[in-house]
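Weekly puzzle thread! Below is a chain. First person to post its structure in token form gets bragging rights.
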Amino acid sequence: MNKQKIQVLFLLFVTMFILGGLANTKGIILEQVKGDIGLSLSQIGLVLFVFQWGFVIASMITGYLTDKKGLRFMMLAGAASMTVGLFLTGLAGSALFFLGFYSIVGLGIGSMTVSINTIIPALYKENAGSMFNIANGVFGLGMIVMPIIMNMMFDNSLTWRYFYIGLAIIIAVTMVVITFSDLPKPPAEELNIKDFLGTIKNKEFLLVVFFLIFYVSAENAFMNFFPIYYTSLDIANMSLEEKRKIAAYVIASFSVLFTIGRFAGGFINYKLGEKKTLLLFSIFSVVTLIGSKLFAAEWVYLFMSVGLAFSVLFPTATAIGAKTTDKGGSALGFVYVAAGIGGAMAGWLVGVLSDLLGPSVGFNVPIVFVVIMLIFALLINKGKSQEHSSNAKGVA
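Winning reply:
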């Protein structure tokens, strides 16, 4: 393996590990921030809303700026935003400063996610699919390991502030590697609005778009508000610290099954077909989320099964959407933006309802989202049935 590939793999794996860890620890950290600097649940929803919008905006402009300014510039800009944002968020003493600095983190994560993934097709033209799977596996590893590291820090009286400042230092070190690495030049990609406007006339593509919006909303709402919901429960003989530790282990366990499911997703799709997989795992999501909520106090580890239920939904729906159009790259770029906006709205809605009616009521919102998601999965499968019927009539 040449020097360039070693440098790129280091950057890819470190970045994806950190991104996975940040994605999976937001809820755990926000639960602590709630008591530390006095964030209300509505403000937590606003934090997630602003963070997600920062991610969406960065995702929309990163491809264009990478083409104009170069990959190194965008990676350094993203890493710098994450470093500054995480460091200042770790020092924030008020809700206003926390909100402002956290939005900078969102911008940085959006830039880094898009720019680091443009490296793969540029450097691994023949094996890009395999490398994307490996990168997502490392992302999943970060999702699993980071909550466990946080629990170890909490056991040693180290707060969330040390966690964010420590990550800021690690990302700052990667900036040195980015500066001196021999980075490949990714191919330019144009975000073609005309192609997208033509694509949205396709009914099945629109069904996939709405499915993904509600899936991302459900996943974000679950991951970010489960620790807050669980620590709000009145469970006999259990302290707040004990509930926090259990919530962190549940999130880590969720991520283990989520990652296993992602790796097994190709085989599952091959055996069942994409549309049947989407429908069955959507039903699985509804059943596991409702069942886990009903028995949250007694059998909290049931929530980890939601990770397996969620695991294959996004890539499977994306694959279905890509097959509905010959303008897949341009159209699906807008799908990700729409899904990101849906995730932003979800965080805000759950936060407001939790503030007004209590965390237990607010945490019913992810259930509503997966039920709506299931309806769209049924409609997507109905489209398949109609397609077969029309084919049969045509043959007849």
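Puzzle host: Confirmed. Bonus trivia for everyone else. The CA atoms of residues 12 and 188 lie 20 Å apart.
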